[in-house]
Amino acid sequence: MSKVFTITEGLENLGALRSGGQGSVYKGRRMGPIISAVKLLPTPIYSESDEDKNYRAFSNEVAKMRMVNEVANPNIVKFLSSGITESGSLPYIEMEYVEGPDLCDLLQPPHERIFMLQEVIRVAYQLSNALAHCHKLGIKHGDIKSNNVKYNINTGNYVLLDFGLAILTDEARRTSIRNAGAIEFMAPEQHDGTMLEQTDVYSFGVIMYELLTGQVPFPLEGHTETARNTVMIAHMEKPVPDLMVARHAALPITWSDEKQHLEMQVPFWLLSVINKCLQKKPGERYASGIELQEAIVAGSLNGERQGQQDVLLSENERLQAEVKSQQEAIRVNEDQLAGLKAYALETGAKKNPATGRYERNPKLAIIPKKVLTFTVAGLLIFAVLFAYAIFTKPTYTPGGPLLKNSVFAKPPFINRAYDEAAVAKTVEELEVAKMMRRKRRADSLAAAKTDSPQTKRWSAPKKKKRKKFLGIF
Questions:
Q1: Alpha-carbon distances of 82 from 35, 42, 103, 423, 459, rounded to whole Å
Q2: Beta-strand (E) ranges in 3-56?
Q3: What's the Cα-to-Cα distance from 90 to each of 11, 55, 171, 260, rounded to whole Å?
Q4: Looking at the predicted structure, is the pLDDT value of residue 4 above 60?
Q5: Which end of the chain offers a freer environment for a tag, N or C, measured as fewer CB atoms within 10 Å?
Q6: Among candidates 96, 92, 91, 93, which has minimal Cα distance to 72?
Q7: Residue pair 26/14 in contact by the 8 Å Cβ criterion
Q8: Structural domains in the chain, sorted by start
Q9: For 204-261, how does the pLDDT look when each residue is reduced to its tens digit (9 = 90+)?
């Protein structure tokens, strides 16, 4: 904040609000609670007489601005006073302090990148109203840009600010329009310092383009002299980029598909107005803010009627499509119901008048076709086998043979005569062999008990071998 000083008697400077090529704006306060915006113009006035051309131009413009405020306009900042600073020779203009954001602020986060159509039309009407009011009195603004249009939070109106460029000398005006903040909104004729009512119309078109797309037609890339010259040449020579393409690219992704579709329906009359405002030659634009306002009012009225018709047609088409959709759904449901009715009748179901539903007979069982097929086949096979077993059963006579006249095969037995003597002899031999085995076993046990030398040698305990000790005593 700048140093607090007194601009003139009774008007205190509370600090700089902003500065630019056509002067600085300070927040001022009268001796009391009234807050104002004070603009200091860079054109010095050395003598408060008609002989000083700067003073003469300043006095003429101040008189016009007083005339502007004789008829109050809600879209133009109120003029309060003017004069020469006590501390120097700079003229100042004291205006109403408008509380609220400017259009440039409203295009920055957390706000959306672009304005909605209804708000753009509202800005177009109010800003054209301000221009028409000024041009009726012969006042040209000369510095219309998005940060010179504020939204008054107390009244809800858009207000045009920062008059004073027309008061500058031609040299100061040429310097001012090359300021980085204004060059994006300048008309082609402003490169040589020319300022017309059509100049304000061109800047109006740039603002409308910016609100719809989120950027000016020819953005400034950098703050060098080369970058500024590039923008000036673009204003004079290059065609304006397609507005609808730029708006489509700038649609917020947070908007629903339906809202995006609606916001792309920019009225043709508004596109025509913006296109005419942005013509390179001043003669091809609207002659003044008055003609511009008339075009906007006529377009909005016709557009409103056309818009109502479009809404009705759109709603009619939507309803017709919905009716067709419902009819198709009803047809599908009827087809399904007919099939269900046929199936219900086949299964023996009957409609219950009390409930309105088809109910099957609980005495009937519904069996799947495959299960029924296998069941029937199994029963048929069982029946065939059972019948075969019954009709092929042989006759049986009680007390008689089970199988009558049956012939059995005999095993091939070997005929041998039974030899009793041979059998007895074999038994005797087996007994003798058994006795001999017993005798040999007894003799063996007796021999084991005999004290034979060999037996003694085997049975004598072994002597323990004595270990020899080798050592020195």
A1: 15, 14, 27, 166, 154
A2: 6-8, 11-20, 23-30, 35-40
A3: 15, 10, 16, 51
A4: no
A5: C
A6: 96
A7: yes
A8: 1-97 (3.30.200.20), 99-304 (1.10.510.10)
A9: 999 999 999 999 999 999 888 899 999 999 999 999 999 999 999 999 999 999 999 9
What is the rounded distance in angstroms from the CA atom of residue 397 to the CA atom of residue 403? Answer: 10
Amino acid 350 reads K
Report d(CA 1, CA 15) in Å as an integer: 5
Residue 113 token pair: 């990148």
Q: What's the CA gap between 25 and 94, in Å, rounded?
A: 9
DSSP per residue, 338-370: HHHHHHHHHTT-EEETTTTEEE--TT-----HH
Q: Which of 13, 86, 89, 40 is nearest to 3 (CA)?
A: 13
Measured CA to CA, the distance from residue 44 to residue 91 in angstroms comes to 7
Placement of tokens 């920055």 in the chain: 108
Could you give phi then psi for residue 29, rounded to 5 degrees? Answer: -145, 130
Residue in the structure block whose two tokens are 């017993």: 438
DSSP assignment of 58-106 equals: HHHHHHHHHHHHHS--TTBPPEEEEEE-TTSS-EEEEEE---S-BHHHH
179 token code pair: 């300021």
Element (H, E) at 80: strand 79-84
CA distance 457 to 390: 93
Q: What are the backbone angles phi and psi of residue 266, rounded to the nearest 5°?
A: -70, 125
| DSSP string for 267-325 | -HHHHHHHHHHT-SSGGGS-SSHHHHHHHHHHHHHHHHHHHHHHHHHHHHHHHHHHHHH
- What is the spatial distance between Cα 47 and Cα 93, in angstroms, rounded to a whole number? 17
Q: Token pair 């007194």 is at which residue? A: 6
Q: What is the spatial distance between Cα 153 and Cα 135, in angstroms, rounded to a whole number?
A: 26
pLDDT in tens, 32-75: 778 898 888 877 887 777 778 888 888 887 887 888 888 889 99
Query: Which residues lie across from 8 on neighbouring strands?
Result: 11
Give the model's pLDDT for residue 1.
Answer: 36
Quick one: tokens of 376?
Answer: 């029937």
